[in-house]
């Protein structure tokens, strides 16, 4: 119970362990403490609502980065049936930081792609913590082209701090790999639905993020730069990340208000890691709903719909009044 | 004391402070930031802002670039009236944009126009690194997307000179989404089989390098230009080793297959004319 609690959840954790203690006491000593327990339970619920109803941007980032937050692999196994993983970009290698393949969603064959940050330490290192190299983006592109060829909808799960910053990544064209995906995704004639499940780290996230629909889990964030990076640039002080996070407007509510995302998928109280199966259920329903809406569109309409989605994002004004 | 009477007065040499050294007025003379040679501004401009001593390419403003490129210096500018808002109410953003507008006499970090190069009509975009480091916010994204749409509709080539530190932080995720917007517009051009030439000048990094700058049918860079996805410092911190000196230069990218050619500024116009002729 105590494991995985975040600092801001401490009062709740303490209350919960007190309740547990009392329950234990009741069992062992056979004393009726049900009244006290009920009072504390009511207090716990109040406290829970108070804490989770007033999460700061930073609290949400902490949830989005939680060590036991479900990763793409969890969703592949629980949202879909018969996931078959496909490997490699046919050019250089197979990047385990991006996984993809074919699966069934409620009976419909789809292509699914996502960042995979890994679960335990060994897995995380092997997957480079979900920071892709160019071959990851090129594998994603290959799988999307395959989906386009066979008329399958494409679903992308976004969860990365960003594309890997490294010598080899630059040599092999990290920029070109992401850029090409942006252009090619704009032209696919199948529905594309993207879901930001955890961290949406800049270009590395967008590299599989050009969809007809962009959905976001409640506590996920999506930003042009990491709060730490922004703080380092703005105030030459990475410890001011919390302030930077607020200024950058990166929560699901912010992105909805800015007109960037189409829907916020709710999370179980406290975050997806508190009930991963419930989270899968919510995601599955959202995906089915959005694909249903997109399915009557013709190929041309799908391309135009996606074009308009991004054409309309931005905020500027004109000196000339028309 | 008698000794005091005969003491040699101390002689002082005036050593200009670091600040003064950098602040040589932009008047008659200019110092090459690479080799330190003092250059006569008029001659430097005649030489397209390339240092005669070491060949270093100094930054060109958008109007200077356009002047040097189009026939008779004539062009028609598009979307000049678009200006940035402050969608996130980001600290100091309005002030900074205003200061750059005053400094550069431009409304934003890119100028888009139509003109003729060697007789061939083209849509031309030029980013200006003096304006918020050429960073891409909503206006830059919109102007480049509109330029690509015009090129696709008119079926004339689009030549874009990139000079940018990347996406503009102060407009947050809206800046990030301009990468998708501009790339989607280029996809439309691509579908219409209209030529797009990307000219990468110093610097072309981050979100700009990871979107339109890398999507040319032909990608050209100026010598020595810094081009890359991640910042040098970030990479150094990640890999914890010293990076090669030529890392992320135009020459480095050419060697690794990321560019078609590196062309000195003096030959750029002729190269572009040749490319336009091939596609006429």
UniProtKB/TrEMBL annotation, chain A:
Residue span, CoA carboxyltransferase C-terminal domain: 32-293
Keywords recorded for this protein, A-Z: ATP-binding, Cytoplasm, Fatty acid biosynthesis, Fatty acid metabolism, Lipid biosynthesis, Lipid metabolism, Nucleotide-binding, Transferase
Catalytic activity: N(6)-carboxybiotinyl-L-lysyl-[protein] + acetyl-CoA = N(6)-biotinyl-L-lysyl-[protein] + malonyl-CoA
Assembly description: Acetyl-CoA carboxylase is a heterohexamer composed of biotin carboxyl carrier protein (AccB), biotin carboxylase (AccC) and two subunits each of ACCase subunit alpha (AccA) and ACCase subunit beta (AccD).
Family, as annotated: Belongs to the AccA family.
Matching NCBIfam families: accA (TIGR00513), AccA_sub (NF041504), PRK05724.1 (NF004344)
Official protein name in the record: Acetyl-coenzyme A carboxylase carboxyl transferase subunit alpha
Gene label: accA
TrEMBL record, chain B:
Main location: cytoplasm
Note on cofactor: Binds 1 zinc ion per subunit.
Chemical reaction(s) catalysed: N(6)-carboxybiotinyl-L-lysyl-[protein] + acetyl-CoA = N(6)-biotinyl-L-lysyl-[protein] + malonyl-CoA
Localization of this protein: Cytoplasm
Zn finger spans (C4-type): 32-54
Pathway linked to the protein: Lipid metabolism; malonyl-CoA biosynthesis; malonyl-CoA from acetyl-CoA: step 1/1
The CoA carboxyltransferase N-terminal domain, residue ranges: 28-280
EC number per UniProt: 2.1.3.15
Cofactor: Zn(2+)
Residue sites binding Zn(2+) per the record: 32, 35, 51, 54
Keywords: ATP-binding, Cytoplasm, Fatty acid biosynthesis, Fatty acid metabolism, Lipid biosynthesis, Lipid metabolism, Metal-binding, Nucleotide-binding, Transferase, Zinc, Zinc-finger
Top-rank taxon: Bacteria
Assembly mode: Acetyl-CoA carboxylase is a heterohexamer composed of biotin carboxyl carrier protein (AccB), biotin carboxylase (AccC) and two subunits each of ACCase subunit alpha (AccA) and ACCase subunit beta (AccD).
Function description: Component of the acetyl coenzyme A carboxylase (ACC) complex. Biotin carboxylase (BC) catalyzes the carboxylation of biotin on its carrier protein (BCCP) and then the CO(2) group is transferred by the transcarboxylase to acetyl-CoA to form malonyl-CoA.
Stated family: Belongs to the AccD/PCCB family.
Protein name: Acetyl-coenzyme A carboxylase carboxyl transferase subunit beta
Species assigned in the record: Laceyella sediminis
């Amino acid at each position: 119970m105590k494991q995985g609690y975040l600092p801001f959840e401490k009062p709740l954790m303490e209350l919960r362990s007190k309740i547990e203690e009392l329950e234990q006491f009741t069992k062992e000593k056979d004393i009726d403490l049900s009244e006290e327990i009920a009072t504390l339970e009511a207090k716990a619920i109040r406290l829970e609502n108070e804490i989770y109803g007033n999460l700061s941007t930073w609290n949400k980032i902490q949830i989005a980065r939680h060590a036991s937050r479900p990763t793409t692999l969890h969703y592949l196994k629980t949202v879909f049936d018969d996931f078959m993983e496909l490997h490699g970009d046919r050019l250089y290698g197979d990047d385990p930081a991006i996984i993809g393949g074919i699966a069934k969603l409620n009976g419909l064959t789809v292509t699914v792609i996502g960042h995979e940050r890994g679960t335990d330490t060994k897995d995380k290192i092997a997957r480079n913590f979900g920071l892709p190299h160019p071959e990851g983006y090129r594998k994603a592109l290959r799988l999307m082209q395959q989906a386009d060829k066979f008329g399958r909808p494409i679903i992308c799960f976004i969860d990365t701090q960003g594309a890997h910053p490294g010598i080899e990544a630059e040599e092999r064209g990290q920029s070109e790999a992401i850029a090409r995906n942006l252009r090619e995704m704009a032209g696919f004639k199948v529905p594309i639905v993207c879901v930001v499940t955890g961290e949406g780290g800049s270009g590395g996230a967008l590299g599989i993020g050009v969809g007809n629909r962009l959905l976001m889990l409640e506590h996920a964030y999506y930003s042009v730069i990491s709060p730490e990076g922004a703080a380092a640039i703005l105030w030459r002080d990475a410890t001011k990340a919390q302030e930077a996070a607020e200024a950058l407007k990166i929560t699901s509510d912010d992105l909805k208000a800015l007109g960037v995302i189409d829907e916020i998928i709710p999370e179980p109280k406290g975050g997806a890691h508190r009930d991963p199966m419930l989270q899968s259920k919510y995601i599955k329903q959202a995906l089915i709903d959005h694909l249903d809406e997109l399915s009557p569109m013709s190929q041309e309409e799908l391309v135009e719909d996606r074009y308009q989605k991004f054409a309309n994002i931005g905020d500027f004004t004109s000196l000339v009044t028309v | 004391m008698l000794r005091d009477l005969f003491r040699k007065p101390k002689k002082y040499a005036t050593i200009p402070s670091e600040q003064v050294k950098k602040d040589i007025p932009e008047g008659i003379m200019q110092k090459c930031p690479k080799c330190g040679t003092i250059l006569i501004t008029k001659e430097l401009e005649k030489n397209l802002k390339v240092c005669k001593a070491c060949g270093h390419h100094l930054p060109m403003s958008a109007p200077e670039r356009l002047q040097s490129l189009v026939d008779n210096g004539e062009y028609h500018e598009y979307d000049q009236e678009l200006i940035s808002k402050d969608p996130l109410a980001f600290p100091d953003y309005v002030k900074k944009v205003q200061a750059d507008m005053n400094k550069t006499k431009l409304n934003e970090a890119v100028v888009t126009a139509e003109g003729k190069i060697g007789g061939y009509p083209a849509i031309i975009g030029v980013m200006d690194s003096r304006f918020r480091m050429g960073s891409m916010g909503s206006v830059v994204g919109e102007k480049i997307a509109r330029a690509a749409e015009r090129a696709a509709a008119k079926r004339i080539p689009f030549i874009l000179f990139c000079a940018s530190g990347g996406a503009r932080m102060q407009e947050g995720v809206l800046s990030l989404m301009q990468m998708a917007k501009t790339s989607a517009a280029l996809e439309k051009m691509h579908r219409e089989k209209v030529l797009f030439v990307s000219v990468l000048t110093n610097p072309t990094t981050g979100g700009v390098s990871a979107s339109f700058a890398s999507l040319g049918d032909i990608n050209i860079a100026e010598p020595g230009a810094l081009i890359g996805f991640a910042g040098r410092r970030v990479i150094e911190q990640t890999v914890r080793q010293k990076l090669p000196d030529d890392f992320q230069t135009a020459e480095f990218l050419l060697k690794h297959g990321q560019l078609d050619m590196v062309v000195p500024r003096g030959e750029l116009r002729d190269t572009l004319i040749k490319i336009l002729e091939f596609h006429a």
